[in-house]
Design a protein that fits this description.
Length: 218
């Protein structure tokens, strides 16, 4: 998988521009559409993100039409309407607290393909996996949140590589979001939404606190 991304030419291949010119876009060009093939490509590229024990504890719900926008708008806070209404696509990233339940199957396949030894497989199953199989709901939610947040940052940068701007937001009624997205409320936890599209405004140039005020050396 990794090789095909490395061989690909993106709309923007300038690392400095992608990283240092990324700002939060709140108004998008509502006339510009992103097709589902490209949406899937961006999401696949985001999933190259490393995760704890390679559990990949994330899931996506894509909102890219007026009907789905109206559905999630019912649980969205008004100050986030501009992103939801004007962006051609908003991706809701949720954490999957059941990701460890398919972990044995995934690693068994790796072993069957000859990429790891039987000893390594047994080590994987006996070391960290029991932490998840016996973990509390709070532990599983925190772990899924950390992994999904790392992926979200990757998606924000990938959107810029594709020539788009993006905005990450969490202004929604968290207790109602998972059900509204049609997902299992016992399994999934809300992480954030990322709206993606062409710029519809010149975003605010914000300032930053001094790095000295944010760092302690131990």
């Amino acid at each position: 998988m990794r090789e095909k991304f490395l061989e690909k030419t993106y709309a923007n291949n300038d690392f400095k521009d992608i990283v240092f010119n990324r700002r939060s876009m709140r108004q998008f060009d509502p006339t510009y559409a992103i097709n589902r093939e490209e949406i899937m490509a961006m999401l696949e590229e985001a999933t190259i993100t490393p995760s704890a024990c390679n559990l990949q504890s994330w899931h996506f719900v894509v909102v890219d039409n007026e009907e789905s926008k109206a559905k999630v708008k019912a649980v969205t806070m008004p100050f986030n309407y501009p992103q939801l209404e004007t962006a051609p696509v908003t991706v809701f990233i949720v954490g999957d607290t059941h990701s460890h339940k398919v972990y044995r199957e995934v690693w068994t396949k790796v072993y069957q393909e000859g990429r790891i030894t039987k000893k390594k497989l047994e080590s994987i199953f006996s070391s960290f996996l029991p932490l998840y199989e016996n973990g509390s709901q709070a532990f599983l939610e925190k772990d899924a949140t950390l992994d999904s947040a790392m992926l979200a940052m990757q998606l924000l940068l990938i959107a810029r590589a594709h020539g788009y701007e993006a905005n990450a937001w969490a202004g929604y009624q968290a207790k109602d979001l998972i059900g509204t997205l049609g997902l299992d409320t016992e399994r999934f936890v809300p992480i954030m939404a990322i709206s993606i599209g062409k710029a519809g405004e010149e975003p605010l140039e914000s300032t930053r606190y001094s790095i000295e005020s944010k760092v302690n050396f131990l």
